[in-house]
Design goal:
heterodimer, A: 115 residues, Immunoglobulin-like, 4-stranded antiparallel beta sheet, 12 strands, globular, B: 117 residues, mainly beta, 7-stranded mixed beta sheet, 11 strands, 0% helix
Chain lengths: 115, 117
């Protein structure tokens, strides 16, 4: 069975400092990987996704993530945090059923940005 | 283009009362999902529809939860009777049909926030 582990429930950073949110997954088949962001009292918005091809994926708001199959990781990074980045971030995996598979989410990482 | 629309956004009810949530997916999206998100947790799938057929309802508590998507477009999720532990966010999402290049992206609505008192 697939699972997603987000290693940190909370990540505090200072404004303009780099951000790294960690995500590891377990799956016995090829996977598709996603990062979603959830702002307070809102639904989930897709940040970026890895389906195939280049393992370095760029998303919205300056975020990017690198798929490392050997490490079963898909960590989310940003060179410089903005106050507006404060939100909850969810990593998700979808199995090789591709379009037919369901999304399995991690428990989320709450990013706080201090001035 | 309109996104996934859910209503109501917020609902407060007393325990043992019924409640219903409505979802209208993105136009053309054949696949519709209902997810449950408890406080401090990631979303968990309740049910997935392909057109009007429920293809995965294994996580839906069928003793009190029901869902329908009669015409393969909008959908309703019902809880009857509600319990205190049902307080959560109910997220609706949609995607294109399997096999299409964009089908791997699931788009979420803003959620229906339920409080049971």
């Amino acid at each position: 069975a697939q699972s997603v582990t987000q290693l940190d429930s909370q990540v505090p950073v200072f404004e303009e400092a780099p951000v790294e949110l960690r995500c590891n997954y377990s799956s016995s088949v090829s996977v598709y990987l996603f990062w979603y962001v959830q702002y307070p009292n809102q639904g989930l918005q897709l940040l970026l996704k890895y389906l195939s091809g280049s393992t370095l994926v760029k998303g919205i708001n300056g975020f990017e993530a690198e798929f490392k199959k050997s490490e079963t990781s898909f960590h989310l990074t940003k060179p410089s945090a903005h106050m507006s980045d404060a939100a909850e971030y969810f990593c998700a995996v979808r199995d090789d059923g591709g379009s037919q598979g369901n999304l399995i989410f991690g428990k989320g990482t709450k990013l706080s940005v201090k001035p | 283009e309109a996104g996934v629309v859910q209503s109501p956004r917020y609902k407060i009810i007393e325990k043992k009362q019924p409640v219903a949530f409505w979802c209208n997916p993105i136009s053309g999206h054949n696949t519709l999902y209902w997810y449950l998100q408890n406080l401090g947790q990631g979303p968990e799938l309740l049910i997935r529809y392909e057109n009007e057929e429920a293809v995965d309802d294994s996580q839906l508590p069928k003793d009190r939860f029901s869902a329908e998507r009669l015409k393969g477009v909008d959908s309703t999720l019902k809880i009857q009777p509600a319990e205190l532990g049902d307080s959560a966010v109910y997220l609706c999402a949609s995607s294109l049909a399997p096999g299409r290049s964009s089908g791997n992206t699931i788009y979420f609505g803003e959620g229906s926030w339920l409080t049971v008192v």
